[in-house]
């Protein structure tokens, strides 16, 4: 029932997407990853640091009138790999989705190594980070093969 | 295998068979036998960074096998300076050539080029990254000296931090069960992540600042140049670098079959008195750059090196 209560911290939405179980404090990064932080056309509600049985504390995001696609949601792998996503249609959950990390993070972030060939913004090939391990997450650049510092990496969002 | 970007593109079996091809190609590399295996093929030499040895030895290797070479020319006057991307440069050269040898100041450039190209890429150095054709000629020289790559004790000495040749070579030697001794000033130690990675692969690795105290155990001593610019001042450099210079008198008690290698150019880390000893192998090593690259060119172009070569004794 605790979850139910948290949900009501924010008004129910009619249509849209709910991203639940975001690690506490990461909601703003998630908005950035989804390119929603500068978007003024979509109503977005944020709940941060609410108690959660599963995670201790968590953040929740509700995006109105937009159904995020699987490939958009996969971008969350870097900061919220365990989040659960619900597509809401006419006030009820129509679909549930999970973040799918796969074996590569493609065109989400730029490699953190300052002398990597991908630092030239005009080079057209995709940014590719290989998933070496999932828990804890370890990534390596496909091109320069440098291991990636995750804290630094979220500053390199494309 | 499409191109050769890092040594991971080669299995141990590939390495053995390419070295065997190289061995058979020696008379061709020396010009004693003419074997136009690569007639009609064109190598594109794309050196975005100055190189004498690597570029020339690729060119020699191609020509000894009857092939042709086109050069990017001076980077300062080519389209690169006008801001052309690597992707676009590769698109052009890819259309002109059958295979590309490249060196680039940025790490990952060779992999990037391979993703952009139809023809195979031979990585001749990408920033602080990899230099696998150098590793192949080093392995060839070691095998030539000892008859094997297995189980040798190898000292790598000097600048182990910035020297990409020692990084690739260490990884390769560990695959053949060699014991590695890293002798360097503290400032220029082998990067921790490389040492850890080697140990994770079960390697026997020792780190020390003492080259001469360990030299008598070695089957191979791989010397590298320590650059003055790495140190805060000249005095600090002089104090530290002296311990990584070899003189013939330091070799009194080394193993009789021990060989000294150096990727060249040397400055003063190997005294000319060493050149006269039975241990000096760096000039052969430089020559071996040609034969190792001949074997690699053939392999990547899918041209088989015949089992018997006219003029060869094999
Ligand atoms: N109409 C709605 N408006 C806003 N949020 C909603 C709406 N319906 C459901 N949610 C939220 O969407 C998420 C998923 O809904 P669901 O009913 O499946 O909850 P759940 O039982 O918590 O599921 P889970 O097992 O994923 O935790 C929850 O965070 C819930 O609060
Ligand atoms: Mg719940
Ligand atoms: Zn990179």
Summarize the structure.
Chain A is of the alpha+beta class and 158 residues long. Chain A is built from four helices and eight strands, in the order αβαββαβββββα. Chain A has two domains: 2-98, Alpha-Beta Plaits (2-Layer Sandwich); 104-156, Aspartate carbamoyltransferase regulatory subunit, C-terminal domain (SH3 type barrels, Roll).
Layout of strands and helices, then pairs:
The complex is a heterodimer of chains A (158) and B (314).
Chain A: H1 2-7, E1 16-23, H2 27-33, E2 44-52, E3 56-64, H3 70-74, E4 84-89, E5 92-98, E6 104-106, E7 128-133, E8 138-141, H4 150-153
Antiparallel strand pairs in A: 1-3, 1-4, 2-3, 4-5, 6-7, 7-8
Chain B: H1 12-29, E1 42-47, H2 53-64, E2 68-71, H3 86-96, E3 99-104, H4 109-116, E4 121-126, H5 132-146, E5 153-157, H6 164-175, E6 179-183, H7 192-200, E7 205-208, E8 220-223, H8 234-241, E9 259-261, H9 272-275, H10 282-300
Parallel strand pairs in B: 1-2, 1-3, 3-4, 5-6, 5-8, 6-7, 8-9
Helix pairs in contact in B: 1-5, 1-10, 2-10, 3-4, 5-6, 5-10
Bound molecules: adenosine-5'-triphosphate (ATP), magnesium ion and zinc ion.
Adenosine-5'-triphosphate (ATP) is lined by residues 3, 7, 12-13, 18, 20, 60, 62, 84, 86, 88, 91, 93 of chain A.
Detailed description of the structure:
The complex is a heterodimer of chains A (158) and B (314). With 158 residues, chain A is an alpha+beta fold. Chain A has two domains: 2-98, Alpha-Beta Plaits (2-Layer Sandwich), CATH 3.30.70.140; 104-156, Aspartate carbamoyltransferase regulatory subunit, C-terminal domain (SH3 type barrels, Roll), CATH 2.30.30.20. Chain A contains four helices and eight strands, in the order αβαββαβββββα. Chain A is globular. Chain B has 314 residues and is an alpha/beta fold. Helices cover 37% and strands 14% of the residues of chain B. Chain B contains ten helices and nine strands. In chain B, strands 7-6-5-8-9 form a five-stranded parallel sheet, covered by helices on one side. A four-stranded parallel sheet of chain B has the order 2-1-3-4, sandwiched between helices. The mean pLDDT of chain B is 93. At the A-B interface, loops of A face helix 4 of B. The structure holds adenosine-5'-triphosphate, magnesium ion and zinc ion (ZN).
